[in-house]
Amino acid sequence: MLKRLSFVVFLGSFIGFSSLVMAASDSDKKTERTLTVQGQGKVSAVPDVATLNVEVNQDGPELDPVLGQVRKQMSKVLEAIKGQGIEDKDVRTEMFQVQPKFERDKRGNSQRAGYSVSNRVSVKVRDLKKTGKTLTAVLNAGATNVDGPHFEVDNPEAAERLALAAATKDAKAKAQAVAEAAGVQLGDILTLNPQNVNWPGPIRPMMMRAMAAAVPMAAAEPVSVGEQTLTGYVSVTYAIH
After folding, report:
1. Which of 75, 90, 148, 162 has its CA 20 to 30 A from that of 154?
2. Mutual orientation of helices 131-141 and 63-83 as an angle, nearest 10°?
3. How far apart are alpha carbons 236 and 241 in whole angstroms?
């Protein structure tokens, strides 16, 4: 009976001690102090690619002649593009559209009046010095609409990594400043969350429309590349002591 009582007392003491240790552990977790900061990093990148959207559009009463005219004009446009040293891999058809045109007669009935045919290609100019010459060449070759140039960075991932690295350094500097002002010390990084990278919004490019009787352009159109500033963001949580 005495042995059994001793065992019960020992077991009860052990359970009580375990509960105390667990409670202390839970208390430590609840009182862990942290500091979370947001970092921001800016990087400037110079665009190295220009994109032109070149379109040939024609209207007419009969479909076959219009198709033939668009085909002929686009062939000349593609030859002009090739003449600027642009490779086939950098020229892509974006849209080919045949759209019936209708008009109403005196009685208000809708009747087919002809067709509108459009063929648009996207042209990537890697030698930016040729952007103006390419723009002039496609207009002289018969392009009816040119949208562009759109300047962009061909390998944006490299610039984005630099922006996130700068944001991480900024977060560390902010955390150190806050910790010093608060009289605490920074500990280990508990969480590090890279967030989005913002590129500047696209600048509205020039839109050029060639008229059927337009005088051929003798000089290359002047264009300016400039630079783009992107901003990266990170969130970092530090332990503090």
Report:
1. 75
2. 150
3. 16
